[in-house]
Amino acid sequence: MPRRATGNAVRYGDKWYARIATAPKKRPAIHLATCGPNDSELARERAALMADLVRELRRAKRDDFVPTTLKKLATLSGTRLTSFVKLARGYAAGTEVLLARAPAAETTFRSFAERWTSGDLAREFPGRVKAKKTTHDDKCRLEKWVYPALEDIPIPEVTLDQYDAILRTVTGSDATRRHVAQLIRRVLQLAVYPARLILVNPIPRGALPSKGTPRAFPYLYPSEDRCLLGCGAVPLQRRVLYGFLAREGMREREALVLKWEQLDLERGTVSVEDNKTDDYRTRPLDAGVVAALSTWKKMRKPEGSDLVFCDADGTALNSDRLAEQFRRHLKKAGIDRRELFTNTDKRGHVRAHDLRATFVTISLAAGKSETWVADRTGHHSSAQIGNYRRAARTAAELGHVALDPLDEAIPELHGDGKVDQTKWREQVVQQLTEIVVESRARGDGVALIIVERALRKLGAGNGARRKARRGTRNAARAPNI
Predict the structure, then answer these.
(1) How many CB atoms lie within 10 A of CB 280?
(2) If pLDDT is split at 50, 70 and 90, which confidence band does 227 have?
(3) Could you give the CA distance from residue 376 to residue 385 in angstroms, rounded to a whole number?
(4) How many CB atoms lie within 10 A of CB 99?
(5) N or C, fewer C-beta in 10 Å, the chain?
(6) pLDDT digits (tens, 9 = 90+) for 376-392
(7) Which of 253, 303, 299, 316 is nearest to 415 (CA)?
(8) For residues 392-424, b (16+ Cβ closer than 10 Å) or e, as one string?
(9) Is the pTM of this model over 0.85?
(10) For 208-226, how does the pLDDT look when each residue is reduced to its tens digit (9 = 90+)?
(11) Which DSSP letter does residue 214 get?
(12) Segment (H or E) for 233
């Protein structure tokens, strides 16, 4: 059994040092950085604490942790000191505290949260930390509400009071406040396990705010769907996306990563692989959607790995501002129903996600079963689908029980599959020119090579390319709006 560790505080000049017996005939002097010249009592207390911890570690045969313990106790104070003492005692007692992770107790909240949102924690702890599917939304909430208060705060120093203070600053709906609270608690829970940076989560389960009454969101009427999809002023690729979402009930993020190789247009099925619930499923497509996508495929001439829904140049659509773009396209199509654009505490304005609600509402109104709907949407709970029951009864009374077949709703995709390539190219040129103008107004700048690449992909001739160049030059000379 090792000899009992003893320690005493000694003053040399204006500095205090602790002399601790760490091994036979070894009593190094450790500078107590937190003790001032007149802090004799504090220096003696700190030396006694260091001696006690060293004794516990040596008794547990944890001598390899003694140098780290002495260094930390000599430099830490406040809650960080308390947290480290708990960590050291737990390690000496044989609880599940890893020596290799002890120095990480000073990891800041932001650095640890970014390891989670970036997927590093999921790769470091496979099977214990699930990869995030909604990283963009979580990053935005953390940047807006949490990081300003906790950015440089070490994980062991995050307190319940700081958590409450952050929630008081959150504006918006009860759901937003709950989302922020869940993020903070989740990050700290991961710090407990599997990261093992702290022993206890300072945010108890009961500290999460209530969900409150969820806001009501509208669905799109069949007449409005018909008007939107038939509007030539709205880009064709966006109308195909909107029509697909409203008729298939797929989440917009699932649709935006959908590739042609996942579609079997001969048999009329789609394989949903990358989705929120990690639920791989193959399901049937609506006959009108199959016909429309067949024509769309002839028009685009894609490779199997190409995205089904993308911009004119083949790049992925940006989902960040999809809701805002959707409302702008509705207005461009002449749709001005007040309910779609009202945004209050009790009612939200229409989003692209509400095309999924349109599918569920109209399907239930048409008498489809919850099982039929869940097979297509991927809902796991009957309660989730039950939220649409009231709106479905209203839709049934109004006669909103079906949308036009997609191949008939979009004029460019209607017919025997023959495509007016000239009209299509002209629309693309017009759309790309508008992108140039909008980008320059934002100060981003758009390279002509993007326009060239889009036109080459569509097989446009030299005349169309010259027209695009003229449009780009005119846009570059246009004044900022």
Answers:
(1) 10
(2) very high
(3) 12
(4) 12
(5) N
(6) 998 888 888 888 999 99
(7) 299
(8) beebbeeebbebbbbbbbbebbbeeeeeeeeeb
(9) no
(10) 998 878 888 999 999 999 9
(11) P
(12) none
